[in-house]
Design goal:
The protein is of the alpha/beta class and 371 residues long. It is built from 17 helices and ten strands. It has an eight-stranded mixed sheet with strand order 5-4-6-1-7-8-2-9, with helices on both faces. A two-stranded parallel ribbon has the order 3-10. Helix 7 packs parallel to helix 16 and helix 12 packs parallel to helix 14.
């Protein structure tokens, strides 16, 4: 009897602590947004002059046109031109990790620096050496999204939208049963409006650059519709063109897709802030799955052979995050994102998954003794 009473007391204490944390937080919704393979160099210093040419950047537009659109001699102005929302809003209202020029080091810990290992680390809170290929297959690890979906408060309020078909394996769709839109799968089902029919027709008939990766703009349309109708509490959004165009050696299109990514994030933020369920109750975490090489050639690729591919960036903006802006002399790991997602929603992911890294320090502003 004593053991059962102690267990009951411990259980009640746990629920009381959880309720206390929930009560302290203003965040009720979290969106994790990723631009695949988007380098920290562009995020913090804008366009690279050495790549704005046909010889090293493979550009099709004239260098003069590209410079007019994206260049400024001042790096801080240049990055604002490329990412006006990130630097005009997120940096002012939130925090950004990863400017190596200021001693802010954000890195992957999986030792591979390519997509599937990176997304597994980001979403489960720990690397897995078994995942050594993008063709690995269904993820044996439970992501923080699947775990959150198992909790009564969040069940059926968790979803993922991504351009890359491999996310069906990363989230282990058959096991997790998460609502998932990925790759070239038709986004609209059931009784369709003319607009939805048109979107499906575009999915069916558009020439594919990559059989596994739909265009960012195609994903963004059903994403906004889903947010307006389903109103998820926890949402993953993955865009892929910044990585695709870098692999293709088209630096002009890397810049254009990065700029458009910034616009997509702005539109999603403004859409959600216009809805009572989300207004002033939503945190965005914005990041990338891996870095890339640097210099005149290795910027196109990433992985252990391209030095610097382990370096990433992470931005956070929401009602529970102090507006500290661009951080200096701090360290962050990709693996910390999973627990940060849960912490923002009042849950302790590390307690459930001891292998997971702790939340990002200072992102969630809690009273002393509650951090």
């Amino acid at each position: 009897m004593k053991i059962s009473i102690r267990a009951l007391v411990a259980l009640l204490a746990f629920f009381a602590a959880a309720q206390s944390l929930h009560a302290q937080l203003k965040t009720r919704n979290v969106v994790l947004i990723v631009s695949d393979g988007l380098r920290w160099q562009e995020v913090f210093t804008g366009a690279d002059a050495s790549l704005m040419n046909s010889e090293h950047g493979g550009i099709w537009a004239s260098p003069e046109k590209l410079r007019k659109e994206f260049w400024n001699d001042d790096a801080e102005q240049r990055r604002k031109i490329l990412f006006p929302f990130l630097w005009g809003v997120v940096a002012k209202q939130g925090q950004i990790f990863g400017n190596q020029n200021k001693g802010s080091i954000a890195q992957v810990t999986n030792g591979m620096a390519f997509s599937y290992p990176g997304y597994n680390e980001m979403l489960t809170g720990h690397p897995d050496s078994r995942i050594n290929s993008n063709e690995f297959g269904p993820n044996p690890n439970v992501t923080v999204f699947e775990w959150m979906n198992s909790l009564p408060e969040f069940h059926r309020h968790v979803a993922a939208y991504a351009t890359w078909a491999v996310f069906k394996n990363i989230f282990n769709e058959p096991r997790s049963h998460l609502p998932l839109q990925a790759g070239w799968d038709l986004p609209e089902k059931g009784q369709l409006t003319p607009r939805q029919e048109l979107l499906n027709e575009l999915y069916r008939t558009t020439t594919k650059l990559d059989d596994e990766d739909v265009w960012d703009s195609f994903l963004h349309v059903p994403l906004l519709d889903y947010v307006k109708t389903a109103r998820p509490r926890l949402l993953f959004v993955g865009y892929g063109e910044t990585d695709n165009w870098a692999h293709a050696g088209r630096y002009d299109l890397v810049l254009e897709s990065a700029h458009q990514f910034d616009a997509f994030v702005r539109q999603l933020w403004e859409t959600m802030q216009a809805m009572p369920q989300y207004r002033d109750q939503t945190t965005f975490i914005i990041t990338t799955d891996h870095g890339r090489g640097s210099g005149l050639d290795e910027w196109k690729e990433h992985g252990v052979e391209q030095k610097g591919s382990e370096n990433i960036w992470i931005a956070v903006m929401g009602p529970d995050t102090k507006p500290l802006g661009e951080l200096s002399n701090v360290a962050a790991k990709q693996a910390q994102i999973a627990a940060t997602v849960a912490q923002l929603l009042g849950e302790d992911y590390v307690k459930a998954v001891p292998a997971a890294a702790p939340p990002l320090q200072g992102v969630v502003d809690l009273p002393a003794g509650k951090k």
